[in-house]
Amino acid sequence: MEANSEMSDPAGGSGKDPHLPNLIFITLVLMILAGGTYALLVIHNSAFLVTTGVIVIAIQMWHPAIQHLAEPLLNRLSDRIGSSTGHALRRAGKGTAAGTAVVIIVSGLIIFELTHSEPCPHTVELRVLTSTEGLQAARELANGYIAATARENDGCATVFAHVYAATTAEVTSPLARSWVDTENEQPSVNVGTRPDVWLPDSMLDVRNVYDTIVKNRTRETDEADAQVTPTTTASENPAAGLPAPLASITSIASSPIVLAGTKAGVTSAGTTSAGNADQTLSSLVSALISRSKATLAAADPGSSAAGRLAVTAYLHDADDQMVDTVVARQRQQLVSRSTPAATDEISLLCDALRHGAVPSAVLTSLRTWRRLMARKPLGGAGCPAAPATAPGLRAEPLATRDAPALDLPFVQFTWTRENHDQQAAADGFRHWLLSSAGRDRLAGAGLDPPIAGCGSLDHNPCIPDDLTATLKRYDQAKAPGRVLLAMDVSGSMTARTAAGPARAVVAAQGVTATLGQLGEHDEFGLWTFPGRDRDFTELAGLAAGSAKQRVTIADALRRIRPSGSTPLYATILAGMRTVADSGDAPIRALVVLTDGDDTTSTLSPQQAAGEIERLAAGSGPRLYLIAIGEARCEDGPGRTGTGLHLLTDAGRGSCLQADTGKVSAIMDHIFGTLWSGR
User: Fold this and answer.
1) Average pLDDT over every residue of 48-72
2) Under 8 Å CB-to-CB from 181, ≥6 apart: which residues?
3) In angstroms, rounded to a whole number, what is the distance separating the alpha carbons of residues 495 and 562?
4) CA 22, CA 30: separation in Å to the nearest integer?
5) Are residues 512 and 554 in contact, defined by beta-carbon separation less than 8 angstroms?
6) What are the start-end ranges of the E strands in 69-143?
7) Alpha helices in 479-527, H assignment, sequence order
8) How far is 150 from 429, CA to CA, in rounded Å?
9) Taking a C-beta distance cutoff of 8 angstroms, is the pair 315, 466 a contact?
């Protein structure tokens, strides 16, 4: 009876609740699953995660074991000390599981409180400024560095890179002034935040900043007549020999200028050349240019470091000598016609790809060409990928050992030292780029290893020694000209030459042959004198030297019919006024071809010369005369002051005596003088 009454005790003092273990088990399982999931999401320390798991498993194994061992002891104690105390001990055994659950819950809450705020610590923003042509490659390099910091920090990146681009012209002055906004320049607004790292394409860009710093300080010294105070609070960097804010320069990669495209290896004979070790880049380009209907695209030197280096290839001949001003202008015009509306490498290639092709011949960096061939993003807005195949496309461009190269400097600044985290991030980026992992990422971006010595501002083997002179020749060749030709079609021009045709016919042929000297950015016009109802006739007004304008002038020259007198002085004065009043082109000239002296003017030669001198004063147009037939540049016997040289001396030009059949050669000489800026 006592046993039965004990088992049926309604208070539950001597029996066990059959539902309690199940409830505790289910609760623990749910807690373990939830805690494990949370741990996998937020805890990146593997050792901590494994240790915690072992502890939890041990607790779960410990609870049933300790309860099994303790229960007989609790029953014996209950028999000895009385039923009320025994019931209390048995209740304590049942509470062991509940106590375990409470411990786990409290521990979980503590872990959550310690870890729930941020999965990863705050990253340092690394601001990376680069060129517009190198933007995509720079982003790939920065992403590689970010991933490297994450691998070394249990999946948490320590750096976030903000990569942005601007041209050298946009950043030279701001960098030299430590990125301080002025009334005329607001780089923080127009470009971006002050960079921690600058990745230009070439030391040419760094040299521009260096020279600007020196120039600014020299001017400030002159104004203060004392030692100039640096424009930045940071000190100079005597160890590197650099003025603040430049702190250090490291060449991290290189990329040579190459000749590429569907017809890059076609010579003047129509054969294909793969190039050899003895050829220079300029000899390959000269062979290409000599081919009929050749084209050659290249980036604008004013907007692109690759474009500046490419100039040395097409303004040097096969013997690697700089070409003269006439040839330079012809080659510059060829490149200009082959590169419509393009500024840098990216816009050049993207413009071609939008038309469904790649250029037949282009001077570009190997980096950009590799990215094109690998169908990687070039960076231009809306730029399509390269076609998978193209007729005659050479995946491997023509490269030579002497070719100039981009040297990809990694530039750091003194202002970054003001923030330890920024300095550490910048240093870490540089060290990673120089590591084996960084070199692999550089190669993946289309870049070659750095070339020894190419991190120098002076005597840099990646930059041609005569680049400054070459760029000056380029500027001369590109300078727009405004030239008006006035041709004598008086009755005397019907006289026959020794070869048979009339003077006017031979002269017109010579003038037509020189029209190729004019580019689309030049202006050219044609007058003839006398006119029907005035001193001259305007056959073609001053207009851009397009193909249409050249055809118009050539057709007009074929239709001339010589007759009448020679209003030479009136035509010269009217022409000088027209050229002077029609814009501010740096090269302006009136070229007059005549076979005789003035026959209609009431002015004396001296009076005409005085008026010409007034019109040519300052930056006014120059006067050139081509004397054929009976016309004479020099004074005749006993006729002092009557030669045509009197007029050209006043007009700051020259008078050239020529046989009728040599008009073309004389015109070439005149244009060569004009284009040279002499």
Assistant:
1) 58
2) 187, 188, 189
3) 10
4) 12
5) yes
6) 124-130
7) 503-513
8) 13
9) no
45 residue type, one letter: N
Q: What is the C-alpha separation between 666 and 678, in angstroms, rounded?
A: 16
Across the chain, which distance is largest between two alpha carbons, in Å?
167
CB atoms within 10 A of CB 488: 26
Q: Which amino acid is at 370?
A: R
What whole-number distance in Å separates Cα of residue 580 and Cα of residue 482? 9
Which token pair is 522? 């030049």
DSSP state of 272: B
pLDDT for the residue numbered 162: 95
Report how far apart, in Å, the C-alpha atoms of 88 and of each of 7, 24, 62, 75 are. 16, 20, 22, 11
Contact of 565 with 490, CB cutoff 8 Å: yes
> 80: alpha, beta or left, given left = phi > 0 and alpha = psi -120 to 50?
alpha
**pLDDT of 49:** 55
Q: Are 248 and 412 in contact (CB under 8 A)?
A: yes
Distance CA 584, CA 587 (A): 8
Query: For residue 125, which of 201, 199, 197, 177 has the smallest C-alpha distance?
Result: 197
Q: Across residues 42-64, what is the average pLDDT?
A: 57
Report the C-alpha gap between 151 and 134 in whole angstroms. Answer: 26
Q: Residue 265 pLDDT > 80, yes or no? A: no
Say if residues 497 and 660 touch (Cβ distance below 8 Å). Answer: yes
CB 301 within 8 A of CB 474: yes
Instruction: Tokens 């294909």: give the residue.
Output: 272
Task: At 639, list the tokens.
Answer: 């006729």
Residue type at 490? S
Question: Would strands 537-544 and 523-529 be described as parallel, antiparallel, or unpaired?
Answer: antiparallel
Rounded Cα gap, residues 511 and 494, in angstroms:
17
How far, CA to CA in Å, does 489 sit from each of 32, 370, 462, 557? 106, 58, 56, 10
Residue 543 is given by DSSP the state E
Give the dihedral sign, CA 434/440/445/449.
positive
pLDDT at 589: 93
Tokens (6 digits) for 550: 């050249």
CB 399 within 8 A of CB 478: no
626 Ramachandran zone, left/alpha/beta (phi>0; psi -120 to 50): beta
Written as one letter, the residue type at 593 is L
pLDDT over 70 (residue 70): no
Where does residue 154 rank: exposed (0-12), middle (13-18), buried (19+ CB within 10 A)?
A: exposed
Rounded-to-5 percentages of helix, strand, coil across the chain: 45, 15, 40
The vertex-354 CA angle with 351 and 360, nearest 5°, equals: 65
| Per-residue pLDDT tens digits for 639-660 | 565 678 999 999 999 999 887 6
What does the DSSP 8-state code read for residue 539? E
Q: Using one digit for the tens of pLDDT, what is the confidence trace for 332-370?
A: 988 988 887 668 898 888 888 877 777 889 999 999 999
Structure tokens at 333: 């015009």
Between CA 305 and CA 308 the distance in angstroms is 5
